[in-house]
Amino acid sequence: MINLPPLLSEYEPTRATLHAYALVLSTIARTHGIAHPKWWHVSLAVRPEGLVTGPIPLGDGGAVAIAMDLKRHEIVFRASDGDLRLIDMKELPTATEVGRLLIAACSAHGLENTYDRERFASDQPRVYEPEAASAYFDAFTAVATVFERHRATLGDRVGPVQLWPHGFDLSFEWFGTRTIEHDGETLPSQLNLGFYPGGDEPYFYSNPWPFDDALATTALPDGARWHTEGWSGGLMPYDTVRTAAEPGAALSGFAKAVFAAARPSLDTP
Predict the structure, then answer these.
(1) Which of 17, 46, 175, 188 gives 126 a disulfide partner, CB atoms 3.0 to 4.6 angstroms apart?
(2) Distance in angstroms (rounded) separating the CA atoms of residues 10 and 2
(3) What phi, psi does 53 have (nearest 5°)?
């Protein structure tokens, strides 16, 4: 049984800070990481040591990685040669300052390039409450575990569970066999399963693409509903899952229900 912590409305300023710092890490990974055609190289992984970039290769065969440790409340730059550099998030550095420090650390290891600093540059004063940061990490860790278990039941047409810094949401994708022409490209149909922790009501989502309007009449588990304004897919509030007798089972039930409903429209006959 998983335990999900309350994500209180007063935690939102800390979540915004984590989002700002995650954009810095993503920009470093985007600039120096090994590019993946689905942009998986810009995401962060949920690991026991925190929210972590993939390995960023160095010219000498080594590698570096950057983590946001939300238990020790540090941004950790770690190189395979033993170099370790820490940024204390409790000291409330701006995103611009975090970027400057991490770019300098990269430069010290021979990583030089032009960075899209507009993606993260902000001198806005930050708020960082350790209790709130820890709660977000506990939520991401528990949710990632449920996602991984569900993902393992879906075969091999799946992507990794990853935190996307752009929206600061956790998700993974399943790919259908149907293909769609979109903006001059041939793309696979797909279905994601995700968790958005922000705003007044954090929620879980599962978005089939393309979305079959008939899905909106398909029954979902108690507490879940179809969302069709702005984006189309299944939605289940975080607190509905958190307060369920078995939160993991409630989240898995939501994921399975959307998958069962959407799969016929995403696979070729």
Answers:
(1) 17
(2) 23
(3) -70, 165
Q: Which two tokens stand for residue 265?
A: 């429209």
Label residue 82 left, alpha or beta by phi (over 0 means left) and psi (-120 to 50 means alpha): left
Q: How far apart are CA 150 and CA 144, in angstroms?
A: 10
User: Which residues of the chain fall below pLDDT 50?
Assistant: none
Q: Average per-residue pLDDT in the chain?
A: 97
Distance CA 155, CA 55 (A): 26
Report pLDDT for 269.
Answer: 81
For the chain, what are the domain ranges?
Answer: 9-119, 131-266
Q: Is 131 exposed, middle or buried (0-12, 13-18, 19+ CB in 10 A)?
A: exposed
Rg of the chain in Å (alpha carbons): 19
Go through the chain and tell me how many residues it has: 269
In one-letter notation, the amino acid at residue 56 is I
Confidence (pTM):
0.96
Cβ neighbours of 114 (radius 10 Å)? 6
CB 63 within 8 A of CB 184: no
* Token pair belonging to 234: 């299944």
